[in-house]
Amino acid sequence: MPLKVAAFYQFAALPDFRALREPLRARCAELDLKGSVLLAHEGINGTVAGTDEAIDGFIAELKDGPLFGGRLDNLELKFSEAAQMPFQRLKVRLKKEIVTLGDPTVDPTRQVGTYVDAADWNELIAAPDVMVLDTRNAFEVAMGTFEGALDPRIASFGQFREFAARHLDPAKHRRIAMFCTGGIRCEKASAYLLAQGFGEVYHLKGGILRYLEETPQQDSRWRGDCFVFDERVALGHGLHERGQLDAVHE
C-alpha cells in the first residue's frame, strides 16, 4: 500500500518552539511517522510520511490540537504518495530559521509578495514585462524549471541576498514572478525584495508541487522534474515519483 507524504509549513510566532520539540517528536513517533520537521521562533517547516490515517492524525494535531493551540491555522499543505518509505528516520530539529535567508528583519507575516494560484501562473509568466525567477539551488534547477526562468545559480538559499544585490534592480525589474518547490523560500524572498524597494513581486502559491498537482500536463509550462528532499528524488506531473536513489540528504 502506498504511503502518504505531507509537506507543510507556516510562518507563525512560536516563542515556545524549544518546548514544542519533544512533545511533537513523541507524537510523530506514536504515529510511526518518518521525515524531517524544523521548528523555529518564526514557524514550522517539514515533510513526513506514514499511513493515510497517521498523516491525517498528525495534520489534525498541528491545526487543531492543544500543542500549537490554534497557531497553525494557515498551514500550507501538499500531499503526495510514495511507493515505499522515503525517509530513513524521524528528525525534529530546532533552527534559527525554518528556511535560512540570513536576514532576521525579514518577516513574511508582516509583508509578503502577491500569491498567484497555479491556474493563473501561466498567464503571468507569459507577460513580456515579467521576470520569472527560480529561487532554488542550482542543482534543483538543473533537474527542471519553468520555460524562460532565470537561474540565480546559487548553492544555497542563503546566497539569495547576494544574488539580488548583484543582479536585480528595482528600477529595471518592476515585475518579478518567483517560484520554489513548495512556496516557503518564495515567502521569504518576496518579503526581502519588497523591503528592498521592488514594486511588484509575485510568487506561485503552493510552489511547483501545487502547480504539478493541479495543472494538466498538456497546459504545463514546466519542463523536467521537480527535485524533492527525500528518497523519491523527483516528482513529475500529478506528483508521481520519477526516480529513487539509495539516499538523499538535505
TrEMBL record:
It is an enzyme of class 1 (oxidoreductase). GO terms for biological process: tRNA modification. One of its GO terms (molecular function) is transferase activity. Pfam families: Rhodanese, UPF0176_N. It comes from the Bacteria. PROSITE patterns: RHODANESE_3. It catalyses: uridine(34) in tRNA + AH2 + O2 = 5-hydroxyuridine(34) in tRNA + A + H2O. Signal peptide: none annotated. Its EC number is 1.14.-.-. Keywords: Oxidoreductase, Transferase, tRNA processing. Residues 126-220 form the Rhodanese domain. Belongs to the TrhO family. Catalyzes oxygen-dependent 5-hydroxyuridine (ho5U) modification at position 34 in tRNAs. HAMAP family: TrhO. This is tRNA uridine(34) hydroxylase. It comes from Bradyrhizobium uaiense. The gene is trhO.
